[in-house]
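Submission checklist for the structure archive. All mandatory fields must be present; incomplete records are returned to the submitter.

[x] Identifier: Enoyl-[acyl-carrier-protein] reductase [NADH]
[x] Organism: Flavobacterium gillisiae
[x] Residue count: 396
[x] Sequence attached
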Amino acid sequence: MIIEPRMRGFICLTAHPDGCEQNIKNQIEYVKSKGAINGAKKVLVIGASTGFGLASRISSAFGSDAATIGVFFEKPPTAGRTASPGWYNSAAFEKEAHKAGLYAKSINGDAFSNEVKKQTLDLIKADLGQVDLIIYSLASPVRMHPTTGVLHRSVLKPIGGTFTNKTVDFHSGKVSEISIEPSSGDDIENTVAVMGGEDWKMWIDALKAENLLAPGATTVAYSYIGPSLTEAVYRKGTIGRAKDDLEATAFTITDSLSDIDGKAYVSVNKALVTQASSAIPVIPLYISLLYKIMKEEGIHEGCIEQIQRLYADRLFSGKEIPTDEKGRIRVDDWEMRPDVQAKIAKLWQEATTENLAELGDLEGYRSDFHNLFGFGFDGVDYKAEANEMVGVESIA
């Protein structure tokens, strides 16, 4: 079938298998171009099919020759209907990993569930024995609690008052004002249940109970802080409470791993175009301005550049891992540079529908968004018939 992008709001309903494969190849080539990293050799990535989790799997495999197990929840293809992009990403990753002689297997299912945890633990026991790095990079809006059976839904809302500010429809380029009503009822508790640290700790506890963590094992979860421009709706809103919980959980996990000299870290990463961030009002406008400035300064990074730098310069540099006053690894350091933020604050005040194409990098935002779904890559013939029925090799 000929596959074209079909948009519905901030979601693309189609994905291109050949484009997703090209995306994976591009990221692999970047990691290889940066040289070998003396990193972990047996890696579990929870949330491995897109964004930072996918970049972590690629960096582990092709930077450190690591065996990787990836857990994700993606939609496989059916005849005449494409899979979700994460499915095609994972298929391409396994294909390239196996070609390079690297162990790579995947599990497709709800990572919050006890069943998928058990399936993953059984696979580690059978194939790897233990793991020495666990990346936790889930980005789900809902979680069925495995103990209570309660379905929790996260919400993006400010706390204590209505938030009003600019946003942009990145498809049309229209800048407008948006208001978001404050959280109420169980909004905060539900958001923390989905996006906080409880499930991360459940994974680590389950691995430790079965003696599947190697001595000195490290686990890393990903977070975001962002600028004062977005803090009312993000870091000081419901999601911020969940991030606070995630970051506090790192200390709890580290304490629980003291007998194996294990450590848990939260890495604060930069703002990037993802399916999740595209759904957050205000963020697309902020990112389009951020991209413009960081590209001009020569410090722009995508997911793969961020994670490769996290691995090479922080986690596996051979030196003590630098953290901030709250124990967090900061690879948002270039984004949060005072000069960068000052320029964004100025442009924010000036941005309108008429001038955003000039002030910001809206085209770069759109390009990155299309790339998420396998569209817009050089070397791919999008007018040719594509086979949507691509399988992930290790998943029957």
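[x] Structure attached
Curator remark: The two ends are 23 Å apart (CA to CA). The chain is about 40% helix and 15% strand.
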